[in-house]
Queue: 4 jobs
Job 1
Amino acid sequence: MDTEVLEKPLAKKKIEQLRDLILHNDDVNSFDFVIEALVDVCSHNPLQAEQCAHIVHNNGKCGIKKGSFTDLKPMCETLLNKGLSATID
């Protein structure tokens, strides 16, 4: 008795590439404001947010979060609405 095993084709999952949310330096916002925004928007702890703020100040930019474009877009928009300069690379 021969039995044939039929397999369902695997559903193709759309794999999103990991992207970087980048915060860019500006001469407008205070360190405290940037730190507060990173804690509120990106769920950074205060020390992590402070370190990112210093990196942005010294290097001109800093990757503040990794994730899919779908996950990062609302964070980027919120940072922009707060008057910060952010991009997704």
Job 2
Amino acid sequence: MMYSVKIYGAGSIGNHLAHACRTKGWDVLICDIDPDALKRTREDIYPSRYGRWDPDIRLSGANTGSDEGFDMVIIGTPPDTHISMATRVLENNPPKVLLIEKPLCTPSLEEVQRIVDLKKATGTFVAVGYNHTLTENSRRAARILAKNTIGDPITISACFREHWGGIFTAHPWLSGPKDTYLGFSERGGGASGEHSHAINIWQRFAHLVNAGRIVEVSSTMDMVTDGIVKYDRICLLNVKTQAGLVGDIAQDVVTEPPQKKVRIQGSNGFLEWFVNLDGGHDAVCYRDGKGEVIEETIQKTRPDDFKGEIDFIEAILNGGDPEDAPISLERGLETMLVIAAAHVSHRHKRTVRIKYDRGYGPEAFEIS
């Protein structure tokens, strides 16, 4: 079925998701307030990544098409604009699906409750772009865990450690973190925001092993401040869930070559999950109760990182049941609360408890 998609933001993620939608044959409009960004999309970013420019993609200023009814709207702008833009979309022309790129918002959590309320009022499925929960290695890991192959979970360790030089290589018009939100943790940048895939995938696996939500966060951050930028280049977390499962999460923007992996230690074995195990593969490695170690590699390209996400959204647009969706607003909010709690913990040098019954604001945090 043909669906119409409006994408706000002609940067890297906007191009990735535009291509993923076009592989479905969907109608795509990319909007940006910067004419140079639209030119880069048409002449550089899209053709260099996917071989040629797709002339069926429409490009326009940000307000064009604002009165049209779109099946899906994607917000791929900086994190400190997400809430205001999402609010405007949901208040004026709510689509069937609204996809907000990660992280959902800034660590201040300002006005995020408004999105929760509008989601309920409109019936729009609101998603947050933690696409790694829906890649093939994640699906295989979920099937293995469902069989209880590794026994009862004891601990989970996750990391997304990656020097952000690759980000700036992909965005050559930026000279460094000072030119973008990335250099400002309070805007949703730094390791805590940009690599929050690690927090999110840790939470995904905790849910799959029935360990519940993270309720305790203790963090240490290495902050970079030079009078212009202020961001965490290293973010280290110790966490505990409702069921008492403890583990650790590491995110940084300094590690080269990158490490993106999860290890779940169970009573009868382990499961390891890898992104980019080598240049062209993700992987899942596990040991079953018989002691045999099994490694499954999955051939992939960069566009494949978004295929599962768009396949999942297509199922929702077709009328599928989004219950307990790994990219749901609720899951994105859980991740955002941990990011915000990490900053509070670092500032106070104390453990922070998350009280989910208090809503999605600073009042949800209790300092131990």
Job 3
Amino acid sequence: MTPSFSTYLVNDPFGDPGLYVEVKWARRALLFDLGQNDALGPTRLLRAGEIFVSHTHMDHFIGFDRVLRVALGRGKTLRLFGPPGLIANVTGKLRGYTWNLVDGYPLAIEVKEFHPQEVRSATFLATEGFAPREASPRPRSDLSPARPFLVLEDPMFAVRAIALNHRIPSFAYALQEQFHVNINKERLHAAGLPVGSWLKELKQHLWQGQPDDFRFTASLYFEHRREEREFQLGEVRDRFVTITRGQKIAYVVDARYDDENEAKIVELAQGADIFYCEAPYLERDADKAKERYHLTAHQAGLMARKAGARELVVFHFSPRYTGQGEAIRREARAAFEDLLPASLSPGGRGEGEGGI
């Protein structure tokens, strides 16, 4: 199966947090957190139309300015989602600049912040000097503070969040593909049909839940000709498509390890194909981690195992461990695989760099 999402950290594990998720075949991306993002070129940033902010501590939000600068002057809408206070934080960022020459610019910024009882939203238009237009709050239907709630629903996927305790709400996110559409190219070729953009249309119809008797016209591009052909969705699906479980990505940063946070994280990340989890501290410094409302590598690995994640990627390492990146990965891996971490064995202290 070719995954629908291609994911990678914006920076190295000692840099600012950020996860870039490319939606394959769609020229579209999602961005989780807005730390320093110079590593992303303008093209990648412009593809990230939806941005999910955990909270607005500087290392998670300083990259907003660069996104704004790259998007300014483009016919684009940026959509930001996050915790209470996000609208005020975006307003403050925008008020830090003078906008007397942007009245012809087409950029729009839409912000949604999720409170325990309601959702607040605001729109900022370049044509209005980014003065905030706040809409009336709407009540939330999913009011359980212990359960993940829906932040964005797309025909292809959904993004859910949960509020974690970081002395302020810090949102963790899960991206879940509705289901995965696998195209059998050998059967296509045997039927004399080409691959191409018409398959994107086919997938969209399936994700949208169109009925089997739904008919659609697609443009087929052969080697020397273009042809319009009508298809019946159910027939095409039965001949050329296999439906499998959708891909799931979890992203967790900045949370203290306690029973409530653990239960929330394990539920959010349940069955994740890739679980991106912060690991700023080694377990030997668990008291410091608790004091600073952060996780240890051992705790990250333990929760990944409890969640049944297929792969764990740890990041957001504290600079106090510079040169000990491999020790952090090793401790997380040991807890994930239910082994005794070297850092917890008598006298054990790992050094070095590497990947988990």
Job 4
Amino acid sequence: MNILTLLTRTITRLREFVAPSYRPERHYMRGPGPACARRSSFQ
């Protein structure tokens, strides 16, 4: 691994630690879960 690659990776990781980029797929919810479905079916 050359020094430029190591420096680039270090800077990228440091930037992500200080100001993480928003990725919607990390926070995406698929919908209500089975507990919610059970609650609504009995009412």
